[in-house]
Amino acid sequence: MAVSKPKIDIPGTTIFGADEARRGYALNAMCYSFNSAENRAEFLKDEDAYCAKFGLDVEQRAAIRDRNVLALIAAGGNIYYLAKFAGIFGLDVQEIGAQQTGLSVEAFKSKLMAARG
Amino acid sequence: MARIVGAISTSHVPLIGKAIARHLEAEPYWKPFFEGFDAARAWLRKVQPDVAVMIYNDHGLNFFLDKMPTFAVGAAAEYQNADEGWGLATTAPFPGDPALSWHVIESLVADEFDVTTCQQMLVDHAFAIPMQLLWPGTTKWPVKTVPICINTVQHPLPTPARCYKFGQAIGRAIESYDKDLKVLIVGTGGMSHQLDGERAGFINREFDQLCLDKLSRDPEALTRFSVPELVKLAGTQGVEILMWIAARGAISGGVSEVHRNYHIPISNTAAGLLVLEPARATG
Fold it and tell me: pTM for the complete prediction?
């Protein structure tokens, strides 16, 4: 039986499904490891070695190096795990939102307030 | 026999946990959110539940992509909260009710919901923050808990229709439990929000209001949406409304709306609260 996948194109949105789960496995595994304070410290001590341990590919390694959330998503990163990576640098979700939308943090917060209508 | 006293659905934004830890409840940013809980707590003091069945989604604390259950039920004597990587203080452990958990598991599987059973299970902010909101200022939780986790990390997610039926099956499980318990259903997550992508910061007040109205009066209307439609209307993380749909499904028949609150924004999220109880027969 053919599986029908309801597809909707939503601009600026990645639905994390089979392709992303396969593509991003190593990257997400590394980010999942950041639940542990010991692992966060190990990453900060030697970022190259830590990324190598999880087998990140060139694109994933570059996106981690650049702290670039959109590039991390394009390389298969899932936001729930990426949040743990961002947490190492004390970034909150407004700062992550501002980076992805190209807005200042203040402008991003104003955008949220504007949703009050 | 056990009976369901009602369902409370609430947002579970991590920043709420930080506000609780820093005692910011009365600050202007937080007041419109926290004061919404006064009515929910007053209602809880009246109905005095013995157990809370917590329908929530894990955000990468207990489950990773190596093994990702669509529906998972905890069956432990105790559940620990733990470090999620971004600085939220952990809470006191939560007491379980293994006998009820196993009854729910057996009933769900007999009802064709083949859940994953977890005798060890860490519970994340999506479980802990609603507990802190409903019973503030305590580490001695006044209820036992049964965690029920629905996957929202990796698509395909279960459809709204499936989650509603899952909730109905949870309701049948509880009502067939041969012990005189008062059970509260808690659905956690939402409302509209999106953390990832160029569309980050998306909030949809109109759709959230529709969800609140339909959960209260016509929940089956929400079962007609597909998951991608929910992503479009509520945002990538707004799909957490699935927990609310499941929680509503657990109450068979009509409901009375006890209380609702809605506030934009808390962090990147439209925060909602809805308290429902089974409709009383009148006359």
Answer: 0.97
